[in-house]
Amino acid sequence: MNGAPIEFYFDFSSPYGYLGAQRIDTIVAEFGRTVTWRPILLGAIFKITGQAPLVSQVMRGPYAARDMARSARKLGVTFALPEAFPFSSVYPCRVFYWLNSHSPDAAKKYARAVYHAAFAEGKPPAEPQAAADVAVGLGHDHAAVLAGMQDAAIKERLRTEVQQAMDKGVFGSPFVIVDGEPFWGNDRLGEVREWLQTGGW
């Protein structure tokens, strides 16, 4: 069996990304695999694809909001769309990649905390100070986090991640790639499990 990490692409402003983040690691661990988390900026991708956030679309928007809440209830996850939505995820992404350069596990914990703040507490950490505060709440140094999110190498890392995601055909959140096979959407995580279980079809 291929032991390469599964790639999990997501935007911090994505409710379905939030839901997918609740279980992607558990699903993949069943098969002795690991997950590489890769936050991206859907806004940049939407400029290329012409897409718009689901909740802003006529007719699809109200359905999507209902479906998100319904999916969260099924998972037993607290969920509410924040008043400021969609929100910019540039600064949380930068903090993530700065943490990731030191510890991927610390970066994952941060990602989960950002998602919790945004969709469980209704307080999306879109601004630099708020994004840093989430990391500080996990025990990271405030000054170091602020400096890290402004580091030129981290800014370039985020740009590179977004471009590489587009190069791989990533256009939504969550987007999972299993050994080159793409799966888009929280509702496809069941198929991710089946694909890993069967080796594909």
List keywords for this structure.
201 residues; 4-stranded mixed β-sheet; 53% helix; alpha+beta; Glutaredoxin
Explained architecture:
The protein has 201 residues and is an alpha+beta fold. The chain has one domain (6-198): Glutaredoxin, CATH 3.40.30. It has helices at residues 15-21, 24-29, 42-49, 60-75, 90-100, 104-119, 128-136, 142-149, 152-167, 189-198, and strands at residues 6-10, 35-39, 175-178, 181-184. Strands 2-1-3-4 form a 4-stranded mixed β-sheet, sandwiched between helices. It is globular, with a radius of gyration of 16 Å. The protein starts with 5 loop residues before the first strand and ends with a helix.
Count of alpha/pi helices:
10
Mean pLDDT: 95
Shape: globular
**What is the chain-wise order of helices and strands?**
EHHEHHHHHHHEEH
Q: What is the count of structural domains?
A: 1
CATH class category name: Alpha Beta
Count the E strands: 4
CATH superfamily: Glutaredoxin
The CATH architecture: 3-Layer(aba) Sandwich
What fraction strand? 5-15%
In the CATH scheme, what's the topology name? Answer: Glutaredoxin
Biggest beta sheet attributes? 4 strands, mixed
Low-pLDDT segments, ≥5 res = none
- How do the strands of the widest beta sheet line up side by side? 2-1-3-4
What is the terminal separation in angstroms? 15 Å
Structural class: alpha+beta
Report the helical percentage: 40-55%
Radius of gyration: 16 Å
